């Protein structure tokens, strides 16, 4: 279809992009709740603007029923991976077994989510797979995240517990569900709402990781909210973070930073650092601080982009 060379103000409708696929944007009309297949204006390409899932938009419907995204509303945030805008909440999903729980990867996710000013909730899956001894071993770490202010929900899709708490969180919000492959994200969503039928692949026992089953970003209606199921991945870039930003993304570090001797303290080698003192006093767990130092080194030594 050819792009309209005119704007008819009375015909503009308001909607939200629920899916992006192969150059098309599927927009839900906020008034009629009808889904309209749209393309974006050529002007956006010239301005290097890409419509994102989650965008509030104004669109024009042509006589053939197809549409054009004409205006994109202001974004309160946007993620690069997955490419999605206006996220209210991030469900950070980690399994406690198969694959094993990884505090380092969790801290990486939390840092990026905190940078984007999105509220994170930690969701632990496959709790039914833990022996009593294994549960006691992981409990202090789980409790630490609760103590520093994160909500942690323990779940089992197989035994159907913890799901109601997630449903309550999703209501009236745009939510992204993220985490490494094979942790049970799709199983979790399908357990909350069986009509979703999101594709699920069993974790590859030979490789010890899951396969990428999700091919595009899409917002699904779930528990009176919208949730995006996104491709699993085992790493997360810290490209958008500067050293001083990282210290603000570790919430218990940020709370103590005012007590440091130096303003802009990176909690590395500086004297009279409140964060290092808290680590020595056992108030901050060593693994969390070690992960922070590794991320800091990664940011400091990355090659500049040209």
From TrEMBL:
Zn(2+) binds at residues 260, 265, 267, 273. One of its GO terms (biological process) is ribosomal small subunit biogenesis. Binds 1 zinc ion per subunit. Residues 76-236 form the CP-type G domain. Residues 85-234 form the EngC GTPase domain. One of several proteins that assist in the late maturation steps of the functional core of the 30S ribosomal subunit. Helps release RbfA from mature subunits. May play a role in the assembly of ribosomal proteins into the subunit. Circularly permuted GTPase that catalyzes slow GTP hydrolysis, GTPase activity is stimulated by the 30S ribosomal subunit. This is Small ribosomal subunit biogenesis GTPase RsgA. It comes from Turicibacter bilis.
């Amino acid at each position: 279809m050819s792009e309209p060379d005119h704007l008819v103000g009375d015909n503009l409708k308001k909607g939200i992009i629920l899916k992006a696929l192969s150059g098309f944007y599927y927009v839900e009309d906020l008034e009629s709740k009808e889904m309209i297949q749209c393309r974006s204006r050529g002007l956006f390409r010239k301005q290097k603007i890409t419509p994102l899932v989650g965008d509030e938009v104004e669109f024009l419907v042509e006589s053939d029923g197809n549409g054009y995204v004409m205006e994109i509303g202001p974004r309160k945030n946007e993620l690069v991976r997955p490419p999605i805008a206006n996220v209210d909440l991030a469900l950070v999903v980690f399994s406690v077994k198969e694959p094993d729980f990884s505090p380092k990867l969790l801290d990486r996710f939390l840092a990026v989510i905190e940078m984007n000013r999105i509220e994170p909730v930690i969701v632990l899956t496959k709790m039914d797979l833990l022996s009593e001894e294994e549960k006691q071993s992981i409990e202090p770490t789980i409790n630490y995240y609760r103590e520093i202010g994160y909500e942690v929900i323990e779940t089992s899709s197989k035994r159907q517990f913890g799901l109601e708490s997630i449903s309550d969180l999703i209501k009236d919000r745009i939510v992204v569900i993220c985490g490494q492959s094979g942790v049970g994200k799709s199983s979790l969503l399908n357990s909350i709402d069986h009509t979703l039928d999101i594709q699920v692949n069993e974790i590859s026992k030979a490789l010890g990781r899951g396969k990428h089953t999700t091919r595009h970003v899409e917002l699904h209606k779930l528990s009176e909210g919208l949730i995006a199921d996104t491709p699993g991945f085992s790493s997360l870039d810290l490209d958008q973070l500067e050293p001083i930003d990282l210290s603000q993304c570790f919430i218990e570090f940020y709370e103590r930073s005012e007590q440091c001797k130096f303003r802009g303290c990176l909690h590395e080698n500086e004297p009279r650092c409140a964060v290092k003192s808290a680590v020595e006093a056992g108030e901050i767990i060593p693994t969390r601080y070690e992960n922070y130092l590794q991320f800091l080194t990664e940011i400091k030594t990355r090659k500049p982009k040209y």
